[in-house]
Amino acid sequence: RAKRAGRNTFAFFNHSMNTEARRTLTLEHDLRHSLEQGELHLHYQPQVDLSSGQIIGMEALLRWQHPIDGNIPPDEFIPIAEETGMILPIGRWVLEQACQTAARIRRLYTRPFRMAVNLSARQFEDSELILQVDQILADTGLPGNYLELEITESLLVNNFGHINDILRQLRRRGITIAVDDFGTGYSSLNYLKKLEVNQLKIDRSFVQDIPGDRDDVAITSTIILMARQLGLDVIAEGIETEQQQQFLLQQGCRTGQGFYFSRPVPFSQLQQRWSHGT
Ligand code: C2E
Ligand code: MG
Ligand code: MG
Ligand code: MG
Questions:
Q1: Residue 35: its pLDDT value, please?
Q2: Handedness of CA 247, 251, 252, 255 (dihedral sign)
Q3: CB 3.0–4.6 Å: which of 54, 60, 114, 256 could bond 148 by disulfide?
């Protein structure tokens, strides 16, 4: 019996592997055409002042509407885009779209805000990055201080000198640099101190179970304290409840993002909320 179960398990495992591999191949192929076919678009998630609820910025999040499979989550297709190099044209398109949107909002509303865009390591290692950013800011007329770029800790462990040089160039343009998913990677505190970054984004896995989980309470409050000591801004992601919002505020975290305030939405919906002043 054990043997048969084992064999069945093996057969099933094999089968699912094939299916998964096949899906990856299909997605890889389809992703190449997604841009020109107009299947990609951006959603925007507000970032708010935790005490007033006012929108102070937004994060652009990529969406892929596949013609057959429907909505494919970024956690599934971004890694494929990174492996194939497709992230370079796609990432450029994201930056253009997000800056266009930001420039539009800036013309409509007087309040200051920042548009946050995720940047993958491949884009960051691309020697054209600075040139690209300059072109896009010039074309859209968006001042650099309206743009925020989110990078991950994994980027920061290699080639520190080079990375920091690029960060410095971006900072000179007024661009804010945020470390996304902070706490999940391996960046040493020593690096962090020397890095040209402005903001830490507390990963949502730590926010999820506060204030109930003692470990997560310890982690979030330590990150907030450390950010303050290092002179960095801090934002919490994945806030889903009022309790989480209150707790973070008490710990000294003044900005946040999460379903409690809004899910990522198309620009038209963001505009509605924005014009209602919250
Ligand atoms: P991220 O940059 O950490 O983005 C935050 C993710 O958390 C988003 O998932 C967002 O929808 C989700 N989220 C926000 N608030 C909540 C909440 O309260 N509860 C829960 N459960 N989730 C929340 P999304 O849009 O699926 O994106 C996943 C990841 O894909 C992003 O994580 C980012 O790493 C990557 N990604 C998305 N767009 C881009 C892009 O344009 N370029 C690159 N390189 N990566 C992107
Ligand atoms: Mg992000
Ligand atoms: Mg994140
Ligand atoms: Mg993430």
A1: 93
A2: negative
A3: 114
CA of 1 to the centre of ligand 2 (A): 49
The ipTM value here is 0.98
Which atom of ligand 1 lies at the shortest distance from residue 237's CA?
15
pLDDT digits (tens, 9 = 90+) for 114-153: 999 999 999 998 999 999 999 999 999 999 999 999 999 8
Indicate yes or no: pTM above 0.90. Answer: yes
CA angle 259, 38, 96 (to 5 degrees): 70
Residues 47 and 57: beta-carbon distance below 8 Å: yes
Pocket (CB within 6 angstroms of ligand 1): 45, 61-62, 73-75, 78, 91, 94, 118, 120, 150, 180-181, 204, 237-240, 257-259, 264
Residue appearing with tokens 């038209």: 268
Give the type of residue at 86: M
Cα-to-centroid distance, 252 and ligand 4 (Å): 23
Name the DSSP letter for residue 97: H
